[in-house]
Amino acid sequence: MLNGIEQISKETIVLIAKIRELIFEYKNLLRDNYKFYSQDLLNNLFKHPYTKIEFIERDLGISRITAAKYLNELAKGGLLKKQKLGTGNYYINERLMNLLTMKE
């Protein structure tokens, strides 16, 4: 039983390190390529493996139009994947999703 706990602990430490690396990479990409970079935006992109216009609007205190513009630019740049579901759009951080589902 302790071996199992030890193994899961090691895997979790590796996962956390990979997530931190990905956050750092996104931070640099956002800073270098997008005028609208902010720490709040970066935090939102990693709070969950997906986000929505409403989340960005609320967390950054910006208009819906501005939030949509930011997310669409990030999707166009390949940082997020835009997925329409029903009447709304979800913006998926696929690289984070792959880490969390152990596909990377």
Which key features would you list for this structure?
104 residues; mainly alpha; Arc Repressor Mutant, subunit A; three-stranded antiparallel beta sheet; 5 helices; 3 strands; 66% helix
Strand order of the largest sheet: 1-3-2
Enumerate the spans where pLDDT stays under 50 for 5 or more consecutive residues.
none
Element order: H for helix, E for strand: HHEHHEEH
- Second rung of CATH, namely the architecture: Orthogonal Bundle
- Remind me, CATH topology? Arc Repressor Mutant, subunit A
What is the highest CATH level, the class? Mainly Alpha
Termini distance?
Answer: 27 Å
**Strand count, sense and closure of the main sheet?**
3 strands, antiparallel
Task: Indicate the proportion of strand residues.
Answer: 5-15%
Number of domains: 1
In terms of structural class, how would the helical and strand content be classed? mainly alpha
Question: In the CATH hierarchy, what is the superfamily?
Answer: Winged helix-like DNA-binding domain superfamily/Winged helix DNA-binding domain
Radius of gyration: 16 Å
Average pLDDT: 95
What's the total helix number? 5
Strands, count: 3
Overall form: elongated
Residue share in helices? Answer: 55-70%
